[in-house]
């Protein structure tokens, strides 16, 4: 599934879940929080941030969510290097959302809070308080968007093998030209190669 399709699905799911929240509780504020959290998460905190390092290695395969960060996309490079693409820590709903929020907190909010503290500026970011219902609404919105991304990956690719192209068998496959090695898309990304083509093992043994 393409990044654009993921984005459209995530936005649509966020709106639907927000509407469902309103029908369920009748609270417009919570419903808006759920919907906007999902849309913002799909736009800036999509699971495919785990490929952020591609912006340094091969821009052709840089996900749209990374590009949306513009100049500040560099803050996600360590995240992309640490986690494998489609890892449970980057794609599993709700868990991965918490980890991305924690990452942002450590990388952005703590340094800013420290600077404000040193400059004796108040109020500190650490003193920001949100109601439990608001926090849960944010988490629900983010988790719903991530769940759609996760499920579309799960049913359109071999998610639990190596995240390769849709419906390909493991190992070598036969073709009129002979056996072709199954590729590892993560390796192909890093080598700047097209992850959706097959390679002749004799000409491309690595």
Summarize this, please?
It contains 9 helices and no strands.
Shape field = flat
| Total strand segments | 0
Number of helices: 9
What's the oligomerization state? single chain
Mean pLDDT: 78
Helix content: 40-55%
The span between the termini is: 26 Å
What portion of the residues fall into strands of 2 or more residues?
A: under 5%
Largest sheet composition = none
Computed over alpha carbons, the radius of gyration is 20 Å
Q: Structural class of the secondary structure composition?
A: mainly alpha
Number of domains: 2
State the order of secondary-structure elements, H for helix, E for strand: HHHHHHHHH
Q: Which stretches are low in confidence, meaning pLDDT under 50 for 5 or more residues running?
A: 161-206
What are the salient characteristics of this protein?
55% helix, 0% strand, 206 residues, single chain
How is the topology of this model organized?
Layout: H1 3-25, H2 28-44, H3 54-57, H4 64-67, H5 77-82, H6 88-91, H7 95-118, H8 132-156, H9 185-190
Question: How would you characterize this protein structure?
Answer:
There is one protein chain. This protein has 206 residues and is mostly helical. It has two domains: 3-156, no CATH class; 168-206, no CATH class. The chain has nine helices and no strands. Helix 2 crosses helix 8 (132-156). It starts with a helix and ends in a 16-residue tail after the last helix.
